[in-house]
User: What shape does this take?
Amino acid sequence: MHPEPQRFVGFDGQFAVNGRHDDQRPAKVDQSKQTFGATMTIAQMTFPLNETTAIPAVGFGTYLVSEDDAPGAIQAAIEIGYRHIDTAAGYHNEKAVGAGIRAGLAATGLSRADLFVTGKPWPGNPAWGDTPKTGAQTKAACQTSLDLMGLDYMDLYLIHAPYGGPERISQWATLVELQKAGKARSIGVSNFNQTHLDEIRDAGLPMPDANQIELHPWSQKPDLLAYMAKAGIAPIAYSSLVPLSTWRAEAGQDSAKTDAMKADGGVFAEMAQKYGVSEAQLLLRWGVQNGYAVLPKSLNPDRMRQNISLSGFEIDADDMAKICAMDRGESVAWATGDPSVAQ
Ligand code: NAP
Assistant: This one.
């Protein structure tokens, strides 16, 4: 059941480069190289990750996309205009994601270089009785994921969570090697907090290009973002749509979303109405306007179109300030609790 009015679909105009938090941009990036401009829509816009790699502002998330659904969903996403596909070994769908990528490229006439693919090795988690991967196992995991997807390289490869404990640094050192070997154009981490990032710095290793974290108006993480901005680590937002009543509402789509959050689901409706957009578009635009690449997942083609159509309106400074005051700090996307608190 998808009740959104069709008028929200395909609403895409010119992107105005305003209302962004300059202090949250990656510090090491030369802003003159930002690949957006007055005539560019958000569907075409990218954020730089390193000297040679830029991530599309809107990507397609594939968590909870089954092996059966992935080929068709990813082909549709590419046809609709998504140029970034985010997956992970832990989503158990890489083979089908690869099939979807090939189908999408064939249907659109695009080439591999036109797409941006993010992968993530599962680091292992001793707290779950899951032995942390060594560096050698992390390297092998990358090749396994590439082989499953039928790819030669990742555009971005991220340690999925800071669960590696004693192996965390060797896992990161391995990603540095994989980048040097051409297996990943950019590398990063996911769900790392300041302590985990300090550990990398203290080991004398290069800092990550990006940290993929849960970011939405109810989980804004200002201290972590300030740290990342200083260190030149680009933020990538996952689970941007947590505040929606439709977010993971189907049976079996577990999370730690609280009852209080579920009761507050409609707070963005009024604001969205003011701009003539859907709540999802407002939440995603908030992320992009702050300089975060976003990764909306949907299996519904109308929503897929809506989620990448974020140009033609801009959240004004008053509303950005109102949203800024809504932070509750909580990360809720993982049913097992906030992964960034791992020791
Ligand atoms: P999301 O993309 O924020 O939200 C997806 C949910 O919202 C689904 O239930 C979807 O249902 C619904 N939805 C999507 N578009 C909608 C719209 N326009 N209107 C109303 N409802 C809409 O959540 P997510 O999957 O948690 O996060 C996005 C991606 O980030 C993931 O797929 C994954 O790639 C990545 N991620 C990474 C981590 C990590 O630890 N690194 C953790 C979580 C997620 P339908 O499918 O039915 O439309």
User: Anything to note?
Assistant: The domain at 25-249+261-327 is CATH 3.20.20.100 (TIM Barrel). The beta strands are 46-48, 54-56, 60-61, 84-86, 116-119, 154-159, 184-190, 210-214, 234-238, 293-294. Residues 94-108 form the longest helix (15 residues).
